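S1.2 Input.
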Amino acid sequence: MTARLVSSVEIAPAVRHFVFEAVGVERLEFTPGQFVSFTAQVNGKEITRAYSLAAAPSGSNRFELCLNLVSDGHISPCLFAMQPGGTIAMRPPLGMFVLRHPEREALFIATGTGIAPFRAMLQAHLTAGSPPITLLFGARHHVLYRAEFEELAHRIPQFRFWPTLSRPDPTWTGRSGHVQVHLTEAIAGRRDVDVYLCGLKQMVDDVRSILKEMGFDRKQVSYEKYD
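S1.3 Output.
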């Protein structure tokens, strides 16, 4: 399978939102939360990297990604240099990091581009009749898709959007610190909430440890992590 770049736009320093299309495919079917894999030849070696889909299925062959530039990485520099019309080998969507119980209250916790699968899940599942969902989103300086999530929170009362910056500038008036600092407030003593984690390995490991101490069953916690 081949992916062809439709467009890319910078949404924060060294972070871009990409729109691709799967060549020769009428509709790209996947479950929000899954990922696609890109493969390229780098220094004579075949390198494959997986990237979470950043939007719900469109009903077409188009799909979206949110990627940060890893300067010494193997594939992200190629993607950031790609122009519309450029192509790269891809594998069909896979992955088990999906909303397992849409009828239950959920807490989403993300850092950085780990927001991608949650954006897809919210587009697919969040409606006026949905169970409550809280998105606790940690970043250093820039809140990706901030306006979009704020609009959702304004329009759908049972959706709470809690961005927190670990390195805020003096104008920031929202939450600060790492997501772990705000976990107890987000849980609010509940034990009947499903928790989904996506982001840096340290965050995921720390939050899982805290949840275990709180008495959460491991079956209530789903995660994906990256370095």
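S1.4 Remarks. Residues 119 and 172 are 23 Å apart (CA to CA).
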